[in-house]
Amino acid sequence: MTDVNQATQTLLGIGLYTPAEAGLLIGVRPGKLRRWLHGYQIGERHYQPLWHPQVDLGDDKVYLGFRDMLEARVASEFIEAGLSPQRVRRAIEIAQSIVGDRPLSTEWLKTDGRSVFLQIANEDPEIEPQCLDLFRNQYAFARIVRESLRDIEFTDKLPNLWWPQGQRAGVLIDPHRSFGKPIEHETSVPAEQLANAAIAEGSVEHAARVWDVPVRAVKRAVAFQKQLAASALAA
To answer: What secondary structure letter does DSSP report for 64?
Structure first.
């Protein structure tokens, strides 16, 4: 347990999610996430992981970092649109050779409404950016990219913040705070804690007084958790 605790100290800015936690946020079954990030066996054939996760606590369990989670969301939607996991893996491998790890969670991922490609800027501004077409002439994949990049804030082409239910919901995920757990944006208190407090105290008003936060913050947290629960039931 001590080794695990020490390992978690290195996770600031990375985030830490079990497959169950990540799956609830991105709408992917935990079993799928485990197979994608750990590999799996069908008969005598072994399938390699789609990529190696950011987090390894040395306990032989699968964990995801913040970027793993965002990339898994994109990969899941590509697969739902008809791509095989093997083709997604190949696309990731090609893209990795140009932009490095986790290309599906970078702002290099672009769409022109018909195709999905990686746009790589050159050091010389007079030279046109390079474009790597991942899925040629596939409108469905272009739509997936547009939807997947929405509500993500980037810094230097890398994802920095994610508003999983949109900014109006008021709950964000920041890998630098609370190990990437959803937090109410005005107070930075984990949404789950505020929502649980509302249940324990019998009302959002009492919970707000206990936590010394605005009532609106507790209401946002409660609404967020209710939406998560509804999504889980609908899955």
So the answer is: B
Secondary structure E strands in 67-202:
109-111, 116-120, 130-135, 152-155, 158-162, 171-172, 183-184
Q: Could you tell me if 201 and 215 are in contact, meaning their C-beta atoms sit under 8 angstroms apart? A: no
Helix (H, G, I), strand (E, B) or coil at 57: coil
Task: Please give the Cα distance from 14 to 66 (Å, whole number).
Answer: 6
Q: 3-class SS at 50?
A: coil
Contacts of 157 (CB under 8 A, 6+ apart): 106, 107, 108
Judge contact between 158 and 99, C-beta under 8 A. Answer: no
pTM across the whole model: 0.82
CA distance 26 to 79: 14
Q: Is 158 left (phi over 0), alpha (psi -120 to 50) or beta?
A: beta
**Residue 72 corresponds to which tokens in the numbers above?**
């898994």
Is residue 225 within 8 A of residue 182, CB to CB? The reply is: no
Are the C-beta atoms of residues 189 and 183 closer than 8 Å to each other?
yes
Write out pLDDT tens, residues 90-144: 888 888 877 778 888 888 877 666 667 776 655 555 555 566 677 776 666 777 7
